[in-house]
Amino acid sequence: MTGSNLGLRLVVAGIGIPFGFAVVWAGGWIMTTVVLLLALAACHEVLGFARAGGWVPFAGIALPVTALLVVFAGWFGAYPPWAGIALGLLLATTLASLIFAIFLRGAQGGPMVAVGSTLLATAYVALPMAFMIFLRQHPAASWSPMSWEGTFLLVFPLLVTWIGDSSAYFGGRRFGNRKLIPAVSPSKTVEGAVAGLLGAMAAAAAFTVLLLPTMGGGLQLSVLAAALLGLVVGVVAQLGDLAESLLKREAGVKDSGSLLPGHGGVMDRFDAVLFTVPTTYLLVPFFLGWGG
Length: 292
Hints:
Oligomer: single chain
Largest sheet: none
Order of helices and strands: HHHHHHHHHH
Radius of gyration: 19 Å
Distance between the termini: 41 Å
Helix content: over 70%
């Protein structure tokens, strides 16, 4: 990474982090709107992977369904009442894509790839993005608009993911020697992956010690529990990063887009988050109050 590129990354992060924190703290429809815009941009980028690979997905299906999944998540604010609608929308996406393939693709027009890439772009992006809303309003927190508890629950995996990613990058540059999975991502190393996990654990523990006590409320997360949750988040984050690297490598592109100067596209910044936010939502009840 060049010095100018690093400078751009720092400028964008310096603006984006406070803005993102304020959006998460506000919650409600303010946050839902921002998540919706991110989801649409990310879905567009995944559809772009397919196009770069020579396939033609049905963007006219993927983008509206992505929007509906996020809007319904904001409307219901919780996973259980949303789940049935989400399943119905994904089923409708599959069937509608097949119908479109009948009339627009034919047997020689790559119908299976068109349907598969349409469904992937929708589910890969919209479902995890919806869990940002659900984690912000998790039952474990005494949720209310502008809630510090809900803010902590969502900021936790975001912070741990991005600090772990930075630790992996700098650790790999300083100590990297053995390639991790060169067929997927030639630049990632075993040493960088280990540095990323250590950074994620340290970030989780530090965030809990420094910020959780100042937020008040009833959330109880010990340093040991936070570090262990940070380890899980760190592992899942690296899998999310590798998943996008795999898609980009197949498509033959370096970045998913250019929306975020110095960072690439939305997927380049949120690829790991798509894995870590749902994981945190599922695991956080088991770690809260444990080991204290």
